[in-house]
Structure formats: C-alpha cells, structure tokens
Write a structure and sequence with these properties.
Elements: H1 6-16, H2 22-38, H3 42-58, H4 64-82, H5 86-97, H6 99-108, H7 112-122, H8 124-127, H9 131-147, H10 154-164, H11 168-182, H12 192-210
Helix pairs in contact: 1-2, 2-3, 3-4, 4-5, 4-6, 7-9, 10-11, 11-12
Length: about 220
C-alpha cells in the first residue's frame, strides 16, 4: 500500500526512476537525503548529498540567490555525516573548501567556520604531510583572517592566535575555551579530546619553528 504522504511518494518515484519532472526530482532528492540522515545511513546520505549538490550547481534556471540559499541548507545538513561518519569527512570537507561553498560560508553562514576548523584540525594525524591537507590548512587560516571582523569564537580565535598573531599564550588560553565550547556543541562533543590533542601538537610545532631554544618545562 502506497504511503499517504505525497513527500514519501516523491521519494519512491525517485528511487524507482519514474519521474521526469525536474522540480519533483529535486524535491525528492532533498527528501531522500533527509531520510538517510535521520536513519543514520551515512554512506547513502553522502550519496544523496552529492546528488543534491549536482542539482544546485547544475540547474541553470536557479538564480544566484536561490543557489546561495540551497547551498546554505546543504552545508548545514552535511554537518551530520561530517562529524558522525569518519570515512565521509574528507569528501565533505573538500566540498566545503570548494570556491562556491567557501563563498557561501563567508556570505551566508560564517559560524560554519567553527566546524570547518574542527574538521581540519582533527584530521591532522591522518594527513598533515599531504599536499591537500596543507592547502586546506592554509585556506582555513586565510579565511579566518578575512572573516575575523564578521565572526569569531574560541575555535577560530585559536587559529588566529597561533597562525596570524603568533601569540602562544593566547593560543593556549583559546584552546582551553575551545575545549569547553566543543564539549557543549551538538556536533563536536564527541571530538573534543581529539581536537585538544591535535591542537596541542600544532602549538608545539609552531613554537619549534620560530624558536632556536625551547624550555622543556
């Protein structure tokens, strides 16, 4: 028996490939993405996120404002798999750093910088020596510098103190504040310890780069 809700029937039509209406297909793709996220099917959710992204980027009839709104919504939905399923993190982070989505973050939702910074810092142990990771880190520093007048919190302030101001005392202060913030953040509470560990390594690395002598204490 078919579900009574028209929204679910749209999703079913999409799954069965029975719709040729672009608007219905777009709506069904958004609906299926939401269903996969709510069902904690992370691999399928990321597949649907990619399909939604294709719809947003490929529909020539969309106005720039409509694309901006759609990308803003997609960024927020993407936070669920980003911090709940490790294998999807690199793909989603790459999307966030693409020009269209970085522009969306800067224009529409600068508070996402907290999550982007957390994703990059906690990925340190996996990719710190790789070129893509190094590029992302440089891009993150650049964006934090640009958006400092618009948005800041302890996480972005930590980046600023360590890599823009080279103020190590301030960086350690902001790290303590960041830990408290992360432990009270819905998406980041499970990554607080990992973030603090990686951030301490970053402080040590930066300190060693600019000092010839180091007091071990």
């Amino acid at each position: 028996m078919a579900p009574e809700s028209p929204h679910f029937s749209l999703v079913e039509m999409l799954i069965l490939g029975q719709t040729t209406d672009n608007d219905k297909e777009r709506e069904a793709t958004w609906g299926k993405m939401a269903c996969e996220i709510l069902s904690v099917n992370w691999e399928s959710a990321v597949d649907e996120i990619s399909k939604v992204q294709e719809h947003i980027d490929g529909r020539l009839s969309n106005t720039p404002l409509a694309q901006l709104h759609a990308r803003t919504w997609l960024i927020h939905w993407s936070l669920f798999p980003l911090f709940n399923h490790e294998p999807t993190r690199e793909k989603i982070t790459d999307t966030f750093f693409s020009p269209a989505y970085i522009n969306t973050i800067q224009t529409s939702c600068p508070w996402i910088l907290r999550y982007l910074a957390a994703a990059v810092i906690t990925a340190r142990n996996r990719g710190r020596n790789s070129n893509p990771y190094q590029k992302q880190f440089k891009d993150l520093i650049r964006i934090v510098r640009q958006e400092g007048y618009e948005y800041s919190d302890p996480v972005t302030d930590f980046i600023k103190a360590l890599y823009i101001d080279f103020d190590f005392e301030e960086a350690q202060k902001k790290l303590i504040e960041s830990e408290e913030i992360l432990k009270n953040d819905f998406f980041l509470l499970g990554h607080a310890d990992q973030f603090v560990d990686a951030a301490r390594h970053l402080i040590s690395e930066s300190y060693c780069k600019i000092h010839q002598r180091i007091d071990i204490k």
